[in-house]
Amino acid sequence: MTSNGHLTNGQYAIEVKDLNIYYGDFRAIKNVSLAIRSNQITAIIGPSGCGKSTMLRSFNRMNELVPNSHIEGQVTFHGYDIYANDVDPVEIRRRIGMVFQRPNPFPKNIYDNVAWGAKINGYKRDLDDLVEQSLRQAALWDEVKDKLHQNALSLSGGQQQRLCIARTIAVKPEIILMDEPASALDPIATLRIEELMRELSRNYTIIVVTHNMQQAARVSDDTAFFNMDEDRAGYLVETGPTSEIFTNPKDKRTEDYITGRFG
Fold this sequence. Notes:
The structure is a single chain. The chain has helices spanning 52-58, 89-95, 110-120, 127-137, 141-144, 157-170, 187-200, 213-219, 242-247, 252-258, and strands spanning 12-23, 26-37, 41-45, 69-77, 80-81, 96-99, 175-179, 205-209, 222-228, 234-241. By secondary structure, it is an alpha/beta fold. It has a domain at 12-101 and 175-258: 3-Layer(aba) Sandwich (Rossmann fold), CATH 3.40.50. A six-stranded mixed beta sheet has the order 6-7-8-3-9-10, with helices on both faces. α7 links the parallel β7 and β8 (205-209). Mean pLDDT is 93; it is low at 1-9.
């Protein structure tokens, strides 16, 4: 991979081909092929246990942190196979950032939470400016600018989640993965996160796993619906523009899930 940021101007940020993901002998994801459009929000929906988070983590090689996991198939980022032997997973995780279900700030002050990743990546420019810009992009600056040296754990849950988004933004990723980013938050904080996602999609490709059908319908441009086979392997039923998936799905299983007939 070159270090010049965007490698191509292709329509797709990530393409998945014939992907199978295993934990030991258990196949969690079965034969998935999927293309994620650049600078759009893609929602991954489906019943519990169908492999949504496993699928999400395959996009930045985080499944490798689980013992005995392995993949078959291909995941490409701007045309480069991210699982190739010469690709550094740490670099992949810098380019493809992750925001988790529960806010997980470091037990440090607000400033150091944002600056930490940039520091360890050898950021040479003005850290104060980077911290401010990242917090502004995460819609948090006005709330914390006078308390940057307070412990991040003193923030509310919604503020902590936006801080984690600022921390992700600070290392200059191209893609932001979000695993149920608002499931632990109250409705007002959830709305702030959704507004923030729309704002961020101007500059980033966002892929979000959500159980919340209304959230998927509100924030995403594209939706991928996953289901689970009898052997508990997750598979892709269909994918397409969110407006079509929610109003005119091609597959009866998608319709049944979205209308609440199962799942």
